[in-house]
Amino acid sequence: MLVQDILDATGAKLLRGDPCTLVQGVSTDTRVLKPRELFLALSGPNFDGNQFAEAAGRAGAGALLLEDKPGRALPRVAGELPVALHEAPRRALADLASWHRSRIAAQVIGITGSCGKTTTKEILAQLLAPHFSTVASPNSFNNDIGVPHTILLADPSTRMLVVEIGTNGPGEIAALSRIARPNIGIITNIGNAHLEGLGSIEGVLREKGELFAALPRAGTAILNLDCRFARELRAATSANVISYSVEGGSDGDQDAVGDFNAEKPWFHAAGTTFRLRGHEITSPLLGVHNISNLLAAIATCEACGIPLEQLLPTISRLKGGRRRMERLELQDVVVFDDTYNANPESARAGLRVLAGLHGHRRRVLILGDMLELGPRSPELHHAMGRAAAEAKVDQLLLVGELTRASAAGALEAGMPIERVQHLGSREEAVGAITTLIRSGDVVLVKGSNAMGMDRLVRRIGEVFGSSAN
After folding, report:
1. Which of 349, 403, 353, 364 is nearest to 380 (CA)?
2. Higher pLDDT residue, 297 or 252?
């Protein structure tokens, strides 16, 4: 894009330089900025993006877009580097992404949900890549910075653009959908996540449903019939609907049978196997929740014109996301690292996998605090403790203040006190890991990202040696 394009798209004012200068890409971080990219200076509570202008120039930026605040001196940047000013660079980033969206021909697929959206995005990107030039959100780029960044990664050759769309409060998904303008939308599920910002499960439903509401009539909504709000989500869109379910219709309700219905799932050392449209499907990913994520991706591929038969080779080689039920085979212990984030739905999904594993000395759940649950946090943590007891895990290790309620729930559900241990902090748990984990255990480590439970996974790796594979 030209600097003039940036000015036209965002309303920024050119302070100096040639508006016909060509830039290639956009960066908001000088540590990863590539030569000739626009450096767009974002600021936050603890940093001022303008302070990195000189570093951006030294890194080879093609142009700068800085925040314009009355009375504040602007940084000096050597050379003839074009510099533009905007009163709100974060809004400028959104406007630039919206402008770029209008000039690319890619099919845009938006994904949201209370849990599973990142894994579904990773699966879908892998299934699409052999058939189309595909760009997908890096990591979990799903907020008002990450979504524009993802859109700006697409170029004229991109045929499929997979955009993860997250939320912490009302109105965010609608706003991000206006930028991304998806042709296809996936809502993985509706559950108890981000209650602090959304208030209630009904608030989550309203917010997530905005993705389906944003789809054009000629678009496609990918609907999870196993979600208890499936009817409400279907009613939220005028787009075509492709549905999926795991063992749908087992209660005789034909409305629960999806267009893609996984039948007779079973779990084994190599992953998960189920029947789908006359095919036996085997995926390396474990758990019913990952069958659901895979079905969402398969249904989306059908909407993109790829038949199931052409997906089978890729399905057999799927890789999960980092720190999302990531299996680590150590010398004497198997660890499932599910530490990227946690809410009650994703924690229960991981627990179901752990409970179904056999042939190990003990099944151990290490659960850290689940954050952003609002006033229902004590109730939901208590229920998670009960669920662990009912799943008959052999040892429950709890980390953080909020999981005190989980300990109480486990004990109330009849779990013996010697099998429930509460640790006040991650540091305490790291220090005690040699006494908590034994050779022969299979361990699931789960907790909100801010709890840093991945440090516990690393410590287990240090104690029990490198991978045996």
Report:
1. 403
2. 297
Q: If you average pLDDT over residues 80-91, what whole number do you get?
A: 95
Enumerate the domain spans of the chain: 3-87, 104-315, 326-464
Phi first, then psi, for residue 196 (nearest 5°) are: -60, -40
Task: Name the pTM for this structure.
Answer: 0.86
3-state secondary structure of 429: helix
CA angle, corner 365, sides to 139 and 422, nearest 5?
A: 110
**pLDDT band at 251; cut points 50, 70, 90:** very low
Q: Which CATH architecture has domain 104-315?
A: 3-Layer(aba) Sandwich (3.40)
- Amino acid, single-letter form, for residue 361: R
Number of neighbours of residue 17 by Cβ within 10 angstroms: 17
Q: DSSP secondary structure string, 252-321?
A: S-GGG--SEEEEEEEEETTEEEEEETTEEEEES--SHHHHHHHHHHHHHHHHTT--GGGTHHHHTT--PP
Least confident range from 201-215, 252-266, 350-364, 385-399: namely 252-266
3-state secondary structure of 159: coil
Main-chain phi, psi angles of 244, to 5 degrees: -150, 160
**Residue count of the chain:** 469
Name, in order, each residue with C-beta under 8 angstroms of 294's C-beta and a sequence gap of 6 or more. Answer: 123, 281, 283, 285, 315, 318
pLDDT for 434 equals 85
Q: Are strands 107-112 and 184-187 parallel, antiparallel or unpaired?
A: parallel
The residues with which 26 forms a beta bridge, in sequence order, are 38
Question: 3-87 has which CATH code?
Answer: 3.40.1390.10
> What is the spatial distance between Cα 166 and Cα 177, in angstroms, rounded to a whole number?
10
- Same topology for domains 3-87 and 104-315, yes or no? no
Spacing of C-alpha 150 from chain mean position: 13
* pLDDT tops 60 at residue 254: no
Checking if the pLDDT of 469 tops 60, the result is no
CATH of domain 326-464: 3.90.190.20
